[in-house]
Records
---
Amino acid sequence: MSYLKIEDMEITFNSLKGSFTAVKNINLEIEKGQIVSIIGHSGCGKSTILNAISGMVFPKKGKVTLNEREIKGPGPDRGIVFQNYSLLPWLTVYQNIYEAVDAALASKPKAEKKELVEKYIKMVNLWEHREKHPKEISGGMKQRVAIARAFAIDPEVLLLDEPFGALDALTKASLHIELLKLWNLTQRSKTIVMVTHDIEEAVFLSDRIVVMNNGPAATIREIEEVHLPRPRNKIDTVNLPEYKSIRERLLSLLVEKVEIDESDFYKEKVA
Amino acid sequence: MKRAIAITTSFTRELFSGSEEVSSDGLFKFFGKIFRALSNIVYSLLGFGILILAWQIISKSSADGLPTPIATFQVLWELVKDPFYDYGPNDKGIGLQLGSSLARVFTGFFLGSLIAIPIGLLMGANAFCRKVFYPIVQILRPVSPLAWFPIGLVAFQSASKATIFIIVITSLWPTLINTAFGVASLPDDHKNVAKAFGFSKWKYLTKVLLPFSLPHIITGLRLSIGVAWLVIVAGEMLSGGMGIGFFVWDSWNALSLEKVISAILIIGFVGLLLDKGFSYLEKKVTFSV
């Protein structure tokens, strides 16, 4: 019996124009401590699958189970990093993390909660910025706050919804490393499910990559296993032959034409 | 990379903290501020100059039907020189009249807000409450609050209390509508944070809903106190007894247009102060994204 399991899931949304099936026939089993990416074009229902695991949306058919318990709603065993950081603008960096910890780990004594918050702020190197409000820090820093917030509640599963999509390439690379560091610091015990549209990011971080078909009513196209050695780094890992072959395989799955040939050039019509 | 972030943030901090160190840049900004303030004063003086000139011309051409500015300012000076005298029920200083009006406005405004904010929160947060209350708001909001005066009289058997009652009614609508709007416009992102991390109802209210809607609520309060200050003058003309509205009516009965115009100037000035106070509060609680 696997740890996180999605069985024959179908999710539909009701709108004014009628109902719309986002994903169907989704079957996915994830082992504890794995990093799994879900990749596909916009509107293929990647985020919908993630939201079903988080408990924000409910399947019309099938079910999602974690540790053999069906997911009925959001819970502190699953930490979420949202696409657009979703920090509360009226709270400081410290308060943003503290309020989440305070809510998710309500029964712990206050001193212990404060200790946790401080530990994770230091882990993501934001100690000097702890009294700042979100508007005063850069996008990369905001995302580090969001990641620290998700880790600080010590969840078993981390759900990342296009976490690095809005960041520049350099910031993105350094956050990939930071994410893997945090994962290592917790003995690689946390399961990470990430939605992305960045092929290289998916290959670099994941153990498995779920490739989606285009929506509506998207299904899983195939699942790629990534056997790159860990710990990974941005120089050696990306030069491994396996890295390149998986990247090319994904590229050919997701992009119809990888090359431009002669027939694409504009030719003047002879009247 | 990190270094670059540190430098940019310290740079932006300096830019936005109103720079405490005196740099040539800071000095430049300081004089810029003074210059802007001075030029604003000049513009205001110009405007009032035009108004007073027009007033002088009209009062001369109406054969002193309208008192001249000079005569009016003399009366105004007499009024503000000794604002707190009390020679019995029909002869009190302008300060006492103003104080009595302000006390009524704030009592009514406070009670009105106490009703409007919770209902506004409910209407914003809950579609059922919105659908139930909104038609009532739509019907009652366009009614002049003075129309409620007789009902206040019947209910409270006192003209003074009835005046407070109409201020309560006046203060309801802008606060209620702005509060409901503020709460209803809470982005899904913020709601999702509360959901994902399992915020309690109380934490959701105090850390998400109220901080987000507070600027809208204060805007509502600011509009309410503005309308309340408009309505109190008319209300006190009806109720009589005491207050700045009564003073205007009493001055008219005594055929002193100088006093009426002086009162208008004072009412305008107090209204301006009330508005400034609330817009200061508004700026204080507005967070920037």
Note: The helical segments of chain A are 46-54, 93-104, 110-123, 139-152, 169-185, 199-205, 241-254.
---
Amino acid sequence: MAAISTRATRQSRLSASLQHWGNWVFLIPSAIFFLGYMIYPILRTLWLSFTDYRYLRQGPANFVGLQNFQYALSDPLVLIGLQRALQFTLVFLPGMIFLPLILAVMVDRVTVRGLATFYRVILLIPAVIPGPMIFVMWRLLYNYEIGPINYILVDVLGIFTKANAPQWVGNPSLVIPAVAVFQWWWGLGYHTMFFLAGLAAIPKDLYEAARIDGANEWQVFWGITIPRLRPIMAILVVLRFGTAMAVIDEYLLFGGFNRGLPTYTWTVYMYDLAFQTGEWLQGYAAAIGWLGAIGMLIITATLLYIFRNRDNN
Amino acid sequence: MQQTLRPPLRHAKPKVRLSTIARHLFINFFVLIILLPLAWILLLSVKSLPDAYSGRLWPEQFDFTHYNYVLTKIPGLSQNLSNSLIVTFGSVTLTCICAVLAGYALVHLRTPGKALVIGLCTATLFFPTRLLSLIPIYEIQRSLGLLNSSLALILPYVTLNLALSILTMRGIFEQIPGELVEASRMDGCTTWQTLFKVMLPLITNGLVVLIIINFVSAWGEYLFAATLTSDQSQRTLIVVLARAFGGVGQFSFPRLAAAYAMVILPGVLAFALAQRLYFKGLTEGAIKL
């Protein structure tokens, strides 16, 4: 009796687990795309980084160990490229966190329902415009001849003359802030929505209690709002750090392959080597890609660690 | 988003009025910063050529022919537009199907390895996946003979946002009580029937969010599109417009602006019309990341 029942349960357990694995049918389409167009390519890039692979070259790729990485670490273009990406990130990141934060606190208090929705819709418009199109628009806005920014600076305000008006795209020291500004413009509403969702989750009685205790706006903001929003800030800082370090489309379009411009970062250098220079040094390019990615991962892990510690305190 | 519209923090003092005005001024400043560049580019698209090049803000003479010119006189541009439509439609459809199926399995079914899948999806958000997969994807598409075709872009585009889409769908499915699944199983529905008959009607708002997110990224992707297609006739509209430097000839500034308006307006209008569903979708868990 006992033997039969254990066999029965074993069988049913087996069939249940088979059935559970059968549920993978639902995950298979995603798995195929992930494996084919993300995981395999990334691992293949890792393998290429240890070889002298050149695209279209006759003959197999040779394993060269860490040689590519050694080259990369002493290649000034790689080091400058990483430094440039980091500079952009440091300019871009604070604006992309604090502007939406302040704006969200303001929009959150708009009580007229229609107006609150109106603000949200307007602020989110840039989020539905594709990235390269944001770039096309801002290239026109920054245009030296016809751009309204310089028109206002020169003809309306008279701060500059035609001769010394800022060349937003051509001047190496202005390119990075110029890119950062249009990235802020793009991300402002989207990030505001994250903070608004966070603000909505703060219990209202916390505010009331603080007010009864005599706290002013400022104290409430620093004492309740900011600590409660910290998890969202943390996740946005880490995510945006990742995107800002790996920006490539905007740089390709803004500065092209001009190695003197600050838009020639490690990502552009990698693309340049892999597809542009005609030598198709894809093994070396792969090594640069992974080097940058590892560097980013280290900083990301550090950031996550810092934010986790703070949350516990 | 309705939940966020909570009652005002009550103040009795009159000075609060002033702060309300200041607050609205502050918000409207940013509203203007968003709207003015868009307004300027729309205005540019109807300026006459001399006005466009003079840089004056308000034109002396309007010229509404640029739209017609862009649509009919620039060779190949309608082809580029249809490429963009095919690529976007294909990849958005595939991504949404994948994400809905996966989200369902991750929340409402007993699926082994759930934690691993979710962990993997989350990890890809912190990793420059697009950059590191570009070289082999070029190889793959070349060996499959897909370079310079719509499929060359559709297939890799599915992975652009797949991780985020799956996590989004997971958030949306989590809002649906598990008892509903149990009940429909009791009624004799298979897992597929439960998905199509019970779940799909409940996730439409979330689906709107998903479609908008994926539409924007597929419609506007540049890096893959510029690398995997080299024939001008196979390129997407975005690549052609983004590379239309110079501002003379075919793509003189007002014409570029007209093409630009035609590229961004469908998305903006669709969003404006679907915003109610979109914000509902957000509150239903789509923003939980």
Note: Chain B is about 70% helix and 0% strand.
